[in-house]
Every structure is written in structure tokens, then in C-alpha cells.
Specification:
Blueprint (H helix, E strand, L loop, with lengths): L2 H14 L4 E7 L5 H10 L3 E2 L1 H9 L3 E8 L15 E8 L2 H4 L9 H4 L4 H4 L5 E3 L7 E8 L2 E2 L4 E4 L6 E2 L4 H11 L5 H6 L4 H14 L2
Parallel strand pairs: 2-7
Antiparallel strand pairs: 1-3, 3-4, 5-6, 6-7, 6-8, 8-9
Length: 207
């Protein structure tokens, strides 16, 4: 199944689910080939074929949904105090994704960074603006953006390599429907946060 079809299938699945409310769904068309060439020519670095392949399938994605647990008594809560569950996918278009976000230079992200790690910040491009406490994306090294995934967190001392491939990450978007915090849970699968996500994926989506 091609990427565009997979996102359309996800959209249909979300719209058909009576447990959730859709706040926004925008699935961009495949990036125009001529535009793609213009964008690639703008930058002084190469981009991995796997990343380009993704943008050959879609230009950008924005999906936001929520589940009000108090209005869905059929859903068993993981924690008694849980009230709402959110899903959030915001994948920028290629031009924006490959442009450095200067907010990453703020004290919020760099305050505890080691000097040598700080030098890498301007070479980092995040892929999905999903979590306010974590950014997951790619580093530009030796004039090439590979598809190896790295991440930084609030208060981090530097970058760390993700224990999964870009292809596995994209598949996880569909598996977890953009469940808010799924990136963190992929990085830290032994946490209560991941158990909570797995619980609600089953309760909300029957999986």
C-alpha cells in the first residue's frame, strides 16, 4: 500500500471511530516533482533517499484527535484521574522540515547541553512536531542528512540516537494513530507511560 493510501486509511479509521472527536485532518498530496527538485537544489546538503521517498508520497500531514474519557463510559481508564486522550501528528512539508528552527537554540532545549553537542543543534531537523518535551529527527553530517533518527529532550545534555529506523518510526505513526507521547514511549518502552498508551490504544481502537 502506498503512503498516501495508508494515511487515507488512517483518516477513515479515525473518522469512523465513535470514541474520538476529530479536531483536524489534512493529508497533503505527493510533493510535486518539479517543486521537489527546486527544494533539493536550495540546500547545500544531500538528503537520504528514504526521506525523499516519504515526501514523494505526501507533502505534509496534520492530524489532531481527542477522546473524552468522561463521555465514553465504555472505555476503562488506566488512571482514575485520566480525562482526555490526545492524538497529534504534524509532519511539515519538505521545505519547512529541512529549514532550521531557531527555537531549538532556546534555553529550554540547550540549557544543559555539553559544548560539543551544542555545535550540532543547528544541524538538527525534526520530522514531526508531536511532543513539546521531545524532538525527534535527523542530523546533517558531512553535508548529508541521513535517515538515521536522533532526538533531544527538554533539559538534555545532548543528542541521542533513536533505537529504531525511520521506516519503523513511520509505521509506528499508523500503529499508534499519533497517540500523544508515542515517540517517548518508543524510546522508553518499559515505562508506565507506554503501558498507559498500549491500554488506551486497545480500549479506544480495539487493537
Amino acid at each position: 500500500m502506498i503512503l498516501q493510501e495508508k494515511f487515507q486509511k488512517l483518516e477513515q479509521e479515525l473518522r469512523n471511530n465513535t470514541n474520538i472527536q476529530i479536531e483536524k485532518i489534512t493529508i497533503g498530496d505527493a510533493t510535486d516533482k518539479d517543486l521537489l527538485k527546486v527544494i533539493l537544489d536550495m540546500f547545500a546538503f544531500e538528503i537520504s533517499d528514504e526521506i525523499i521517498k516519504f515526501y514523494n508520497g505526501t507533502s505534509s500531514i496534520k492530524i489532531k484527535w481527542l477522546c473524552n474519557l468522561n463521555e465514553n463510559s465504555n472505555i476503562q481508564k488506566f488512571n482514575h484521574e485520566d480525562e482526555q486522550i490526545y492524538g497529534d501528528i504534524e509532519i511539515y512539508g519538505l521545505a519547512r522540515m529541512t529549514t532550521f528552527d531557531e527555537k531549538l537554540l532556546s534555553e529550554y532545549w540547550t540549557g544543559n547541553m555539553e559544548p560539543e553537542e551544542l555545535e550540532d543543534v543547528q544541524n538538527f531537523r525534526y520530522f514531526n512536531k508531536h511532543d513539546e518535551y521531545l524532538r525527534l529527527g535527523f542530523l546533517i553530517e558531512d553535508k548529508k542528512m541521513s535517515d538515521e533518527m536522533y532526538y533531544i529532550q527538554e533539559g538534555t545534555t545532548g543528542f541521542a540516537k533513536a533505537p529504531f529506523s525511520f521506516e519503523e518510526y513511520v509505521e509506528a505513526i499508523f500503529t499508534y494513530k499519533g497517540f500523544l507521547g508515542f515517540e517517548y514511549n518508543m524510546l522508553y518502552p518499559e515505562t508506565a507511560s507506554n503501558k498507559r498508551m498500549q491500554h488506551y490504544i486497545k480500549e479506544i481502537f480495539g487493537e
